[in-house]
Design goal:
38% of the residues lie in helices and 16% in strands. It has 541 residues and is an alpha/beta fold. It has 3 domains: 4-216, DHBP synthase; 241-339, Threonylcarbamoyl-AMP synthase, C-terminal domain (Rossmann fold, 3-Layer(aba) Sandwich); 343-380 and 436-537, P-loop containing nucleotide triphosphate hydrolases (Rossmann fold). The radius of gyration is 31 Å and the shape is elongated. The chain starts with a strand and ends with a helix. The mean pLDDT is 94.
Length: 541
């Protein structure tokens, strides 16, 4: 079949031609404000059958019937409830589809054998003009091959439908970019079956209580039936395999460093793109859901065009219109998630109470990584760090079995500033590497961890952390704690404290500050910090 692409803005024959084809039982691709639709006369069963054929769509997946004025709804449904009237008044014309019990006028093919029908009044002027000119309601699913991303640009519709339809109308890029919100009024409480440009919050303002179908964000269980048959099919999927990264922004960047692979792309927000070294396809602005819906399907198609084997996507926030982005993206990925837990860096002056805070974090499922212990472990017998130290400070630091004599190393390393510097230059990078490796390994298992590092900022370990926490306490408090804990006299305690940075060094750098004064209880602060980190960044308990 030869396919014509006409733009009604410049070609006055386009709309009348479309109307003629539709009245004659043919198919036309029309633009709408959501996505391009593959339209046929909704009341003509034979015409509707052609839609299923052209898309390769399963016959039990019902279509949406498009109308151009509210009066047209009456013959299509058994009854127009007050709630439908209110929704129409508020959101039509626009990206909202309403499901109601159908009348006898709707053929079974159009409603996929259900006794309800989905109706929507689009706002795109070309869509409205075509419906009016055709004089019949139009059944129109998205104009893509079934299972692939919906077309939000005329080029995408042409890619999928050329040769399958006689006419494609060019109405420019779709303003919303994902399909309409589908709400059913056929249940006791109105329920959103598919999120879209009209958010649950907007619907609740008009209707009061509105449920969100479980299938919106979760895969169906084996024995569950879909309230909306479209939800049970693999959907919106490009050829590129999509995975969704759920973790922090730093973790996302790290993922690509730690998993280099041929053909691996990042599907990321505009703001993240410049931070990545792998090939990227962007999917809109981080805090602007509408820019994401506009971009999403085009981005998925772009991945295929670029021959990406796999793309790891950033996860949008499933709120407002972001719910629609997540709904489409999760399906495109077949619910394949990469969940990584946050790495928290904990620091503070000696005696401030880091250990107390560590215990609280542990109660919240965090693993504590103790860098002092790592420092000891990396100098165990036979380790590369130990042989490096023996090269620098002499074999006399080793006993006859080749184990480190710590006192001997200390004697030599602390004999001069220069030697101390030498010691640190051997051990610090190794400690840092090992600490980061352990933290990342936990994060990749989705186990959150806390790095207990006195010199967090000074050593650069904070670069590996998603969140940094500083514990503070007044001078006198810390002094008393150090004296009690380490059995020091006052002078020795003060000397040790004097070697440290002052409090503002920590408080000006940390993301979260936990105060731990005498008689105070740092556990409340610590608990709320741990909870906050878990809610924002996740990780399994
Ligand atoms: O924005 C849109 O709605 C676009 C444009 C072209 O208007 N159309 C669209 O149609 O997205 P389609 O066929 O791709 O998606 C229709 C969705 C499917 O998930 C289908 O299962 C559901 O609506 N649906 C249709 N009628 C239904 C019914 N009676 N009960 C439950 N779900 C229904
Ligand atoms: Mg579709």
């Amino acid at each position: 079949m030869k396919t014509q692409i006409l733009n009604p803005n410049t070609d006055p024959t386009a709309i009348p031609l479309a109307a003629q084809i539709l009245r004659d039982g043919g198919l036309v691709v029309i633009p709408t404000e959501t996505v391009y639709g593959l339209a046929a006369n909704a009341l003509d069963a034979d015409a509707v059958r052609k839609i299923y054929e052209a898309k390769g769509r399963p016959s039990d997946n019902p279509l949406i019937v498009h109308i151009s004025s509210f009066e047209e709804i009456r013959p299509l449904v058994r009854d127009v409830p007050e709630s439908a009237r209110r929704l129409a008044e508020k959101f039509w014309p626009g990206p909202l589809t309403i499901i109601l019990p159908k009348s006898g006028a709707i053929p079974d093919v159009t409603s996929g054998g259900l006794d309800t029908v989905a109706i929507r009044m689009p706002s795109h002027p070309v869509a409205r003009a075509v419906i009016e000119a055709a004089g019949v309601p139009l059944a129109a699913p998205s104009a893509n091959i079934s299972g692939f991303p919906s077309p939000s640009k005329v080029e995408s519709a042409a890619d999928d439908m050329t040769g399958r339809v006689p006419l494609i109308l060019d109405g420019g890029d779709c303003a919303v970019g994902v399909e309409s919100t589908v709400i059913t009024l056929a249940t006791k409480t109105p329920r959103v079956l598919r999120p879209g440009g009209i958010t649950p919050e907007m619907l609740r303002e008009t209707l009061g209580e509105v449920e969100i179908d479980k299938a919106v964000l979760d895969p169906l269980e084996k024995n569950e039936t879909a309230a909306s048959p479209g939800m049970k099919y693999k959907h919106y999927s490009p050829k590129t395999r999509i995975k969704i990264y759920r973790g922090t922004q730093k973790g996302y960047l790290r993922y690509f460093d730690r998993h280099p692979a041929q053909g691996l792309f990042a599907l990321c927000f505009d703001q993240t793109a410049p931070l990545l070294k792998v090939p990227v396809v962007t999917m809109g602005s981080e805090n602007d859901g509408l820019s994401q819906t506009r971009r999403l399907f085009d981005a998925l198609r772009e991945l295929d065009e670029k021959g990406a084997a796999c793309a790891v996507a950033q996860c949008p926030v499933p709120e407002g219109i972001g719910l629609a982005v997540c709904n489409r993206l999760f399906r495109a990925a077949g619910f394949d998630f990469i969940d990584e837990a946050p790495v928290v860096g904990l620091t503070g002056q000696t005696g401030a109470g880091k250990s107390t805070v560590c215990r609280v974090f542990e109660a919240y499922g965090f693993r504590v990584i103790d860098t002092d212990r790592i420092a000891r472990e990396i100098t165990e017998k036979g380790s590369p760090v130990l042989s490096e130290l023996a090269n620098v400070f002499g074999r006399e630091i080793l006993d006859k079995d080749g184990a480190l004599i710590r006192a001997e190393l200390a004697r030599r390393a602390f004999s001069s500033k220069e030697n101390t510097r030498l010691l640190n230059s051997v051990t610090h990078p190794a400690i840092l590497r090992e600490t980061a490796e352990r933290a990342f390994a936990l994060s990749e298992k989705n186990i959150p961890c806390v790095l207990d590092v006195p010199l967090l900022f000074q050593s650069g370990a904070d670069a590996y952390c998603d969140v940094t926490v500083a514990v503070t306490a007044p001078f006198e408090t810390r002094k008393r704690r150090i004296m009690a804990r380490d059995g020091l006299d006052e002078a020795a305690a003060v000397l040790r404290m004097g070697a440290q940075e002052d409090e503002s060094f920590y408080t000006s750098r940390a993301d979260i500050i936990i105060e731990n004064p005498d008689g105070g209880d740092p556990t409340d602060d610590a608990r709320s910090a741990a909870e906050r980190i878990r809610t924002v960044y996740g990780g399994k308990a």
